[in-house]
Write a structure and sequence with these properties.
Rossmann fold; 541 residues; five-stranded parallel sheet; Alpha-Beta Plaits; four-stranded antiparallel sheet
Length: 541
Amino acid sequence: MSGYKVLLVEDEIPARTVFRGMIEERGDLFELVGEAEDGADGLELYHRHKPQLVVTDITMPGMSGLEMLRAIESGGGTMPQVVILTCHQDFQFAQQAIQLRAAAYLIKDDCLNDPELLARTLEELTEQVVGRDETREKQLELEQKVRSNEIVIEQNLFLEMLRNPAAGDEWLQSLERIGIPARGSQSFALMLELDRSSLRFSIEQPQELKLWQFAGVNVLNELLGALGPHKVIALDKGRFVAIFAPTSESSLETLLDQVVDSFSKYLKMDSLSIIRRFPSGLRDRMGELKAWVSAAYPFFYDSLPALGSGSLAPERIAYVHIPEQYIRFWGKVLKGALLESHLVSSAVEHERSSFRKQAMEHGWEPEQIKSLYLRIFLDLSQFTNEAEGMADLEAAFRKRLEQCQTFDAVHDSTVAFFRKLKLLQGDNRKLDAWIAKIVQRLHENLHEPFKLEELAASINYSVPYFSSMFKKTTGDSFVQYLNKLRLEKAKLLLLTTDRKTFEIAEEIGFENYRSFNRLFKRDTGLTPSDYRKQGVEGGWR
């Protein structure tokens, strides 16, 4: 075992050198963690090392030894075992040392006459250190057990309130007993979920979860305790709910940042959090609170949750089924964006933004969003099924999707695993840097009247060479690729905006409206107007 930590505070260098030697001679038992020449330096070293034993002179320039001990005692916590060294046999000093609970009072001359006296005295004090540490450990264990039981009691009371309407009054009374009015006065609810992708444990392991619940409740209690009356409840799956009534609302502006930062700093885990305001208390809003805290995906479309208003947005609680037509449409769009991401880095981000915006507006079911991305990934991996590592990659992706709590996490995870998939597939398609830049230009400026000859000349390629390299890079001829790009954009605008069809044709670069109609019908079997009408009737908008 490591030795007992000892701090030596002595202003006279010769004396300090002698006492240092006496302590270090028992290196099997003691570890000298620091030396100081006055009380101020000694106090700093004490806070840094937390020694179990302190050997100190009394009279020193600046802060004296007794003043240092008073500062240590006023800081709270367990006092170290203290050995006072002095040249004085003055009862007044001894009396002050006793009042500060010094364990021994030694005359320096006695220590010099008996070189083993100091080490012997320290060794006798180690028994008290051991006994004190064991007592403190038992006390901490008991305190943790009591607080763990409190967490379980609060959790059971809260869950009973969620299940049984009759238990609501009892739960509200428990709030009022700690100073949170149930009616007529403003209160707040904070919900926090640990980011499952950053967890250092499995939420399926009850004992591990209990430990982290205990730690999370402690962090929230410390933060909310500074605001006013509060109650923290630890729920399953790494979710926490806190009800609180702050004495001032000014502190709420930074509370979410403090919560997220504290969980990151002390628990080393990311988290999602949001606050809801209940202007007149919770008694008349219990149904709303229950629906909110029970929601499967309260953060799904909230990448940056913030302080909420009194009313809860319905799409945050209940979600709707995605029409099959939309699943097919977005599946095709997202798949195409992923396939072209090696050419146009902005393609995937653009489609993410469009898909997320519409999914959030409609309140689409998160589990269906996950299923859509899984289907896209499986479709893209169909030619890699026999590749070594493919089964493990698919299993890892499925597990990651299960952990995702937000739309952006689902999308980002899919993109990340698609990149791993590409490495497995070993894409041998040769990329031409100049062609890649042309492709990016097409995506970003569809309205321009692109001409093959002009584009080839802009990069000093002949038309035949440009055409050859373009098809080798994209898999399509220049005209096919440009028309495909424009038609996919047209479908999106028809389904998501009220713009006239001829305006859409102009926006995506068709100078001839009849040509746009003809190509659109050849691709979809419908005119642009019929395509939009079918989408509206099918619940696309």
